[in-house]
Amino acid sequence: MNTGNLEELALITDQKILAVWALDCAERVLPIFEEKYPNDPRPREALEAGRAWVQGEIRVGEAQIAAFSAHAAARTAAGDPPASFAARAAGHAAATSHTSGHARSMPQTTP
After folding, report:
1. Cβ distance 49 to 96 under 8 Å?
2. What is the pTM of this model?
3. Which residue among 4, 64, 72, 84 is least packed, with the fewest CB closer than 10 Å?
4. How many CB atoms lie within 10 A of CB 71?
5. Which residue has the higher pLDDT, 10 or 36?
């Protein structure tokens, strides 16, 4: 994957706009994780934390904690790559609150 254009875009785009984009992308793939792990709310909570950060309702540190939890959920699902990748996408989306570079880790999706 050529990420050059995405990296350039991340450098010139407002961090909150990147976070909304990353959160929207992760939202689209999250059902893959939730179908296999319906009792694990960590990736969904990471998306909620990311959105709360965008709205100014929580601080970066709180979003980071939720992102770390989503990544832990991804490790739990390591034997199921699609589910693991979906949880990891949620973690990176929430982590965009910390640094816009996390948005580059989002999966490519099409409408």
Report:
1. no
2. 0.80
3. 4
4. 21
5. 36
